[in-house]
Design brief:
This protein is α/β, with parallel strands linked by helices. The protein has one domain: 2-enoyl-CoA Hydratase, Chain A, domain 1 (Alpha-Beta Complex), CATH 3.90.226. It is built from eleven helices and nine strands.
Length: 252
């Protein structure tokens, strides 16, 4: 098993299932972010894929967010910006994919993982899939993922979510539009994801492509916006506050 994790894609009956894994609670180092984005681009260009399912492996968290090891290793602005551009590129890949993306959220998700869930077109989760934007607590902010999260939950909810850096339960996420539905356990979740993917795979690809474009209306400027946000994070991650906060989080 690679210490950097892995990404796989399986295509069957019109559904392209993209799975990622990292041994540290499905956290996202730069190499894994790049691989997921590339795989989503691959699925988007594959005519055999009508709908994409994005999921993480294991029974634990869906995603623990940014890799703390890589965050601590950042020692200059360019490296910092490039790391956060990994999240920007993944969100942009999900945005430009011409197929609907269903996110299967089986457990808790933090920081950048919340951005991934928000960038999906349709997210289904279990009742234990709590969410947290923890960035402010470590001396930065949810700058790169912010537009995707705010697009789903609204400005007021996003402001509170980002400011207090507290956990929100799955019911909150569903009520505010981050999740489309929540289920009691993984078995129910898997059945719902399979049913929704099968349904979408039978619809008109052109109609879905056009509807996705409508749903993402107003985001044409995101390539520039997310790069600017990555620069903001790249500067803040170098602060003494951020270094101390991340080291403290790692010791927990």
């Amino acid at each position: 098993m690679s210490e950097n994790g892995h990404v796989n894609i399986e295509v069957a009956d019109g559904v392209g299932t993209v799975s990622f894994f990292h041994p540290k609670k499905n956290s996202l180092p730069g190499s894994l972010l790049k691989a997921i984005a590339s795989t989503i681009d691959e699925a988007g260009a594959n005519n055999d894929v009508k709908v994409v399912v994005l999921q993480s492996e294991g029974e634990g968290p869906f995603c623990a967010g940014a890799s703390f090891d890589e965050l601590l290793a950042i020692d200059n602005f360019d490296t910092g910006k490039e790391f956060f551009m990994g999240f920007a590129r993944l969100i942009l890949a999900m945005r430009r994919c011409p197929k609907f993306i269903i996110a299967r959220i089986q457990g808790k998700t933090v920081g950048g993982g919340v951005g991934v869930a928000a960038a999906a077109d349709y997210a289904l989760a279990t009742k234990r899939s709590a969410v947290r934007l923890s960035e402010l607590a470590i001396g930065i902010g949810p700058f790169v993922v912010g537009p995707a999260v705010e697009r789903k939950v609204g400005t007021g909810a996003f402001t509170a979510f980002a400011t207090d850096a507290d956990w929100r339960d799955a019911e909150w996420a569903c009520t505010h539009g981050l999740y489309a539905a929540i289920y009691d356990d993984r078995e129910q979740l898997d059945a719902a994801v399979a049913a929704r993917a099968k349904q979408l795979a039978g619809y008109s690809p052109e109609a879905m492509r056009r509807l996705k474009a409508v749903c993402w209306h107003g985001t044409d400027h995101w390539e520039t916006l997310l790069e600017e946000r990555a620069e903001e994070s790249g500067r803040l991650i170098l602060s003494d506050f951020a270094v101390r906060a991340i080291e403290a989080f790692k010791r927990r």
